[in-house]
Write a structure and sequence with these properties.
The complex is a heterodimer of chains A (114) and B (112).
Chain A lengths: L4 E3 L2 E4 L5 E6 L6 E7 L6 E7 L2 E5 L7 E4 L6 E5 L8 E8 L8 E2 L3 E5 L1
Parallel strand pairs in A: 2-11
Antiparallel strand pairs in A: 1-3, 3-8, 4-5, 4-9, 5-6, 7-8, 9-10, 9-11
Chain B lengths: L2 E4 L3 E5 L4 E3 L1 E4 L5 E7 L5 E7 L5 E3 L5 E5 L4 E6 L8 E10 L2 E4 L3 E6 L1
Parallel strand pairs in B: 2-12
Antiparallel strand pairs in B: 1-4, 3-9, 5-6, 5-10, 7-8, 8-9, 10-11, 10-12
The chains are: A mainly beta (114), B mainly beta (112).
Chain lengths: 114, 112
């Protein structure tokens, strides 16, 4: 079990630029989740996939945000035309498709928009 | 709708003394409840989970939590704090498999 891997660990970008983050889940986990966490807050749900299908998106996920999981393995989260308010930790998690199976989190990607 | 409230944003204890982190929840169904820990610049690690079996749940690193339905609480405890326990702790409620609501977190400080 190599755990959930996220890249990059840190990203600093200028406002208006596009950024893309990658998440590699635990290999046998078919559910993959993206969360956003700001300072002093708990993680907020953004979206999740079952295999390659994106099944739910939060209202927090504006049209500048897009997530994909093309082959049901790794996932990418892209933010277009970044804004300073996008600065946060972006967490990826995966779990088995089984009731009460817990989420396993990666170490996150910290985005700073200047 | 489900929700979770962590009653303390910050708890400070001395090493070797008990830890109590409080969590109240609201749910229309029989929820699953979790506690996660987050060390600085790290992802979240599962400490323990309650899934309608035993009401007293034991987790890793000596932590345990008791589900009290009458009080809608799921407080996290540890008999003796260790310096390595200093971290952010999150209580999580879920009444459907893909809807997990996180509390705002409790920062635990352990003094030598």
């Amino acid at each position: 079990d190599t755990g959930v891997s996220q890249n990059p660990r840190h990203k600093i970008t200028k406002r208006g630029q596009n950024v893309t983050f990658r998440c590699d889940p635990i290999s046998e986990h078919n559910r993959l989740y993206w969360y956003r966490q700001t300072l002093g807050q708990g993680p907020e749900f953004l979206t999740y996939f079952q295999n390659e299908a994106q099944l739910e998106k939060s209202r927090l996920l504006s049209d500048r945000f897009s997530a994909e999981r093309p082959k049901g393995s790794f996932s990418t989260l892209e933010i277009q035309r970044t804004e300073q308010g996008d600065s946060a930790m972006y967490l990826c998690a995966s779990r088995l498709d089984r009731t009460n199976s817990p989420l396993h989190f990666g170490n996150g990607t910290r985005l700073t928009v200047t | 709708a489900q929700s979770v409230t962590q009653l303390d944003s910050h708890v400070s204890v001395s090493e070797g003394t008990p830890v109590l982190l409080r969590c109240n929840y609201s749910s229309s169904y029989s929820p699953s409840l979790f506690w996660y820990v987050q060390h600085p610049n790290k992802g979240l690690q599962l400490l323990l989970k309650y899934t309608s079996a035993a009401t007293l749940v034991k987790g890793i690193n000596g932590f345990e939590a008791e589900f009290k339905k009458s009080e809608t609480s799921f407080h996290l405890t540890k008999p003796s704090a260790h310096m390595s326990d200093a971290a952010e702790y999150f209580c999580v409620v879920s009444d459907r498999p893909d809807d997990m609501r996180f509390g705002a977190g409790t920062r635990l400080t352990v003094k030598p």
